[in-house]
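sorry for the late reply, my laptop died twice this morning and i had to redo everyting from scratch. anyway the thing you sent over, i finally got around to it. pasting the sequence first so we're on the same page, its 92 residues, then the predicted structure underneath. double check i copied it right bc i was rushing
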Amino acid sequence: MANGKDEIITFKVDRRLSEAMAGIPNRSEFIRNAILAALESTCPLCQGTGFLTPEQRRHWRKFAEHHEIIECDDCHAFHIICEAENKKTIDR
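ok and here's the structure:
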């Protein structure tokens, strides 16, 4: 925020979530941390919507021409690798 002041944001929760959070000593801090963690894990392309716009799909198709999604042999996480990097790995 331009003036540096905190902003208050409120939202409703259902009874189940309210009961689940009942024992948390500082719910505001917990919620802030949970939101920040979620934002750090948001897909940089779709911004967390789970969908690509037609324009994003067009850019993705162009990007995917030289990149692929592979599974890590060690941790089994899926990640994107550039074909140039993949070629370096194969050539070794």
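Strands lie at 67-71, 78-82.
thats about all i looked at so far, will dig more tmrw
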